[in-house]
Structures are given as C-alpha cells and as structure tokens.
Write a structure and sequence with these properties.
This protein is α/β, with parallel strands linked by helices and 280 residues long. The chain has eleven helices and seven strands. Helix 3 crosses helix 4 and helix 4 packs across helix 5. It is globular, with a radius of gyration of 21 Å.
C-alpha cells in the first residue's frame, strides 16, 4: 500500500471486512455472499479473498470474481499480501476458514495493520459471532483485547445456527464492544424448505449460488413460491446491511444510503369489520 497524499481525516475510503472466529458452521460465508451482492447493488466496488481451503464457498459462488488463496505453510504471509492491496477496491472481503483467528491476529500485529490503514484512509471491520461456549467466548474476548478500538466491530447473530447467546448477553464483553461503537446484525431466518430448494439447484448446476443469482438466472429454474420467499428474505437482509453501512463500506457511500424506516401499523378498531347498524 502507498500512503495517501491527502491529510488523514475521519472519512473512510477503504474497508477491510473479516470475521475472526474459531468455530465454523455459523453462516459466515452465507453472510459474506449476501453482503457482496448488497455492495454490488449499492454501487460499492469490492474484491473477495477466499482463504477457506475446506469449503471454498465464496470463490465457487463468485467464480472468476473472488480469488481463492491457499493459505499454505505461511498463512500470515498470504494475509499480509491481502492487507497491502487494500486500496485496490473500496471494500476487501476476506472469508477465512475456521480456526484461523490466531493467524489473522498475528498477521495484523506483524504489520500493525490499523496504522497502515490510517495512512490510506482505510479501516478494518471485524465480525464476531457470539455462541454459548466458554472456549469460543474466551477467543472472542482475546480478539477484542488485542484489537479494542483500533478496528470497528459488528456483532452478528444467526438464529438458525446460533439459537441463543446467553453467555454474551449482559456480559462485560458486550458492554465493552458497545462502548467501542459496535453495530449489531441479525441474519433473518430463511425458510428451511427454501434453503433445501436452493441446495438442490446448486447440486443440479454443480456450484454454489448466491441468492441474487438464483433470482436472476433463469437457468436455475427457481420455484415461484420459493422465489417470493427468497426475494423477501434478501430485501430484509439488505435493509439490515443498509442500517449498519457505516461499519461495512466507505463513509461517502454509507452516507448516500437512506435506510428504510418501518412505519407502525395503523390502529384498527376491533369492530371495524362489522356493520353495527345491522345488529342494533
């Protein structure tokens, strides 16, 4: 990365977004896939780096767009290469494999990444997924103690994969994260029958599908009922991304978005459907 010639200001021009988590099977790749499509629809340029050698979900879903990077014997070196290229796009998306949390933290420390980012008006966003396991929460606490307010935080909850977060709710860690301005993101639940239908389409095509491609690509042959369910789910998730855009994309792009404000339903009288004249 080459330092910016402009004076450092509070405006963020580049984002590096990465989940730092020990456990797998929490929906991290699903969130990343949807977020990439959201950024595309919002006019945000992004580059994806898939470091999950076991699944390669992000790179197979966005074949030819997302680079798969084999971590190899020195995964810290591969991460540092990604860090150095952060200014090539407005947002850099990293999808690491499970158990890479210590490796990611080590790479960040090795190059003092928050300082490098400050030189090019960039900022790191770390996604965490609290779960009801002591070892996992200890790892998240360690991640927070290491990075603290040098990065931005998004607390992600995926009820389908993580039914409860009792260990985290009301904890000292939660309070510390909120003091650092952490945002919250809850992934809406997609109907299991629709998820299974999408999986069958992926098997038929022979690769991963983003929800957006499943809706656009006629060759997918998505069932009409599942299409409607998926459209509503994606619109809901996109509105949630809009609400925390300041943590996910550059400042100027985030300010240009206008999150939808939900209107409360109009009050309805209990007897509004009854013609009272006919029963007097």
């Amino acid at each position: 990365m080459k330092p910016s010639k402009d004076p450092i200001t509070s405006e963020i021009k580049h984002r590096l977004v990465v989940p730092i988590q020990t456990r797998g099977n929490l929906g991290k790749s699903t969130e990343a896939i949807a977020r990439c499509e959201w950024m595309s629809q919002r006019g945000v340029s992004w580059k994806g780096r898939d470091l999950d050698a076991f699944n390669r979900t992000l790179s197979t879903t966005y074949a030819g767009i997302v680079d798969f990077i084999e971590p190899g014997q020195e995964p810290e070196g591969e991460l540092i290469k990604i860090f150095r290229r952060i200014t090539e796009a407005e947002v850099t998306v990293i999808d690491p494999s499970a158990h890479m949390n210590r490796t990611i933290l080590q790479a960040i420390r090795m190059v003092r990444l928050p300082e490098l980012c400050a030189d090019v008006a960039a900022r790191v966003t770390v996604l965490i997924y609290p779960v009801d396991e002591v070892s996992d929460m200890d790892d998240i606490a360690h991640t927070f103690e290491t990075l603290a307010d040098s990065v931005d935080w998004v607390i992600v909850r995926n009820p389908v994969k993580i039914p409860t977060t009792k260990f985290f709710q009301g904890s000292e860690l939660e309070a510390q994260l909120m003091d650092c301005g952490a945002a919250r993101l809850e992934i809406p639940a997609l109907l299991s029958d629709t998820r299974n239908h999408l999986r069958s389409r992926e098997i038929q095509i022979g690769r991963g599908l983003s929800p957006a491609e499943a809706l656009k690509n006629e060759a997918v042959q998505l069932d009409m009922a599942h299409r409607i369910v998926l459209e509503q789910w994606l619109a809901d998730l996109f509105s949630r991304f809009d609400a925390i855009a300041g943590h996910l994309i550059p400042t100027a792009k985030a300010k240009a978005l206008k999150p939808a404000v939900s209107q409360p339903p109009l009050p309805r009288r209990r007897t509004s459907g009854v013609n009272m004249e006919n029963i007097r």
